[in-house]
Design a protein that fits this description.
This protein has 412 residues and is an alpha+beta fold. 36% of the residues lie in helices and 19% in strands. The chain has 3 domains: 1-34; 65-146, no CATH class; 171-410, Glucose Permease (Domain IIA). α2 runs antiparallel to α3 (89-99) and α2 packs across α9.
Length: 412
Amino acid sequence: MGWNTLIIKTLKVNKKLIIGAILLLVAIASITIYYTFANSENTENDTKKENKKDFIKWVDFNVTAEAMNLTAKLDINSHTKNEEIKYNWIELLAYLACKNGGNFKNFKKSDLDTLVAKIKDGETIESLTQDLKFYDYYYESYSAVLSGFIGNYSIETENSKSQSADNGEPKETPENSLESDTKTPNNTSNFEQKYGVKAFLPIAKNYSFSHYDDFGNSRSYGFKRTHLGNDLMGSIGTPIVAVESGVIENLGWNQYGGWRIGIRSFDTKRYYYYAHLRKNHPYAEGLEAGMVVKAGDVIGYLGMTGYSTKENVNNINVPHLHFGMQLIFDESQVDSPNEIWIDVYQIIEFLKQNRSETFMSNKETKDYSRKYDFMDENFNEWYLYKNRFILFLLPWCRTRTARLVAYAVIIT
């Protein structure tokens, strides 16, 4: 009995120890798993935070038309005259932004003259900016705004156009179609190769307009908000042209903008918004979402539609074009609270120097087309046909993932 009792008591003790050990192991395992997942989540959150730092979240573009004109002249002249030193106007503007704290109200021409003198004396823009803390930010920001404005292009000449006329008027061409957009200069059309401003004022040549800097003004239709564009006052029916070549992402009715068009630049950094187009006949003939347009193409007609949930209603008091530019550094900034809209007033002032001339190409529909054809350096047959399927799908790529995939294909 003594031995049996001892064995039973020993087993009872060991059983308690075993249960305690198991509970201890479970506790240790639970704590380990908890901290593993916690660290994993923290790592993932840290990664997300790092990724969020990879693109610009905000841009306050206040570069004056004067500064743009002066730096553009240096850039264009250095290339057209084949000077030894080739200036890049965006680099010059980014440097000046660093010097004036990003506020071009403080811009002085003497600052630009001093910079040019240093470059002529042998200093490089790299050496001059290496210690400027915010240079990279300004350069990337201003590139997003202005990179499609100056470069190589070809424009149809007056002699070529007059030779192709039957009765003193330019021959009608199927504007705004993919086939006509991808045509190349041929024997019947002479194109002059140029380097210079290749973006156009949105109001066609020979049509008057007025505007003032109304960016940020209060708006109350629907809900209280700020005005994120520039209103160009003009006459109903004035031809509206594409400022830059790109893809039509949005076309149709919007209760705030009425009949509107949204065009994305080829590099995907800029989204141009044209709103309040004409009632009954807002768009240029044959225009559809997914199509590609060239800078200077007629895309629509000035009107006063909008401020209505019902389509094709004139609820705007004064005929005008609402013109806006959104910057996109990441697709998460599309259709979200994180959108970046910039003040384009000074850009309109700058673009007054380059306007697209138009003519009535269809007397029955009273549609207009550009008078002189235009070929952008980024606009060629290979580029468009290579991405035709993707360009067709873009208007339906509503999710961030779909847009990322589509644009990844386009820019490769």
